[in-house]
Structures are given as structure tokens and as C-alpha cells.
């Protein structure tokens, strides 16, 4: 009897976590913090963070920043906004934090990315460009070979 109850509760928890993830996907540009996300599903911030990481492999904050950086990458490729404008457009309130996180996820600064990628995806359908340019964590990024110059 308890295993059925445990399973039912686990499924309810997963549904709540999916709602949190969906909210992050929808409202990534809004001021979101773990406490506000947790209140939305009647959990404590600590419990939400632990359960979210167990379910999705990263904390709610890391997931939010990944979404923001993905959107920033698309805006930078478009090329009509400055790095500062992109930072604020995706919901970041600090250019320094945005640049640091962008560099951690992509391996290059936002301005370097903008220069390098502006023409790389020209003519490519946006759905393909999004897949090809999806950010990866530095631990997954290939390590550049040291230069012997």
C-alpha cells in the first residue's frame, strides 16, 4: 500500500517540477528566483532545488541561466542588439554576471560569440541554428589545444 502511495506522490512531485521547468521556459526574461518558483508549487526553496536537480540534472537557477544564455545566443547571432541590450532583454540584471555565465556555458565572451557566429548561421533555418548552437557546459566543451607559438 505504501509503495502505491509513494509512487503517486512521486508522480505528483514530478508534475510540479515540470510546471516549474515550464514556467522557467516561459518567463525566463522575468525576475525569477528559487523562492518564487518554490512558492508557486508550495515547496520550500531547498526542497525544490534538491528535487529539481534530481529530476533534471541541474538546479533551477542553472536551468534558468541556460535558457537565458540560449536566448542571448540567438539575439547575438541576429546582430541588431548590443551585448548590454541582450543582457537585459533576457532578464539578467548584471552585465558582469551575464558575461561570466555566458563564457562559462559557451567557452567565449558574448562579444566574441557575436563576432564569430553572426555569419556562421546565415541562411540556416532557426530551428537548425538553435540545435547547432545550443550551449554546453564547460565540463562538456572540448578543451582547446595549447598553442606552441
Major sheet, described briefly?
Answer: none
Shape: elongated
Q: Which stretches are poorly predicted, pLDDT < 50 over at least 5 residues?
A: none
Query: How much strand content do the residues show?
Result: under 5%
Question: Could you give the count of β-strands?
Answer: 0
Using brief descriptors, characterize the structure shown:
149 residues; 8 helices; single chain; elongated; mainly alpha
Quick structural gist:
This protein has 8 helices and no strands. The chain has helices spanning about 1-25, 35-40, 45-55, 60-80, 85-90, 95-105, 110-115, 125-130. The mean pLDDT is about 85.
Structure commentary:
By secondary structure, this protein is mainly α. It is built from 8 helices and no strands.
Write the layout of secondary structure elements.
Blueprint: H1 2-27, H2 34-40, H3 45-56, H4 60-78, H5 83-89, H6 95-106, H7 110-117, H8 126-132
Helix pairs in contact: 1-4, 2-3
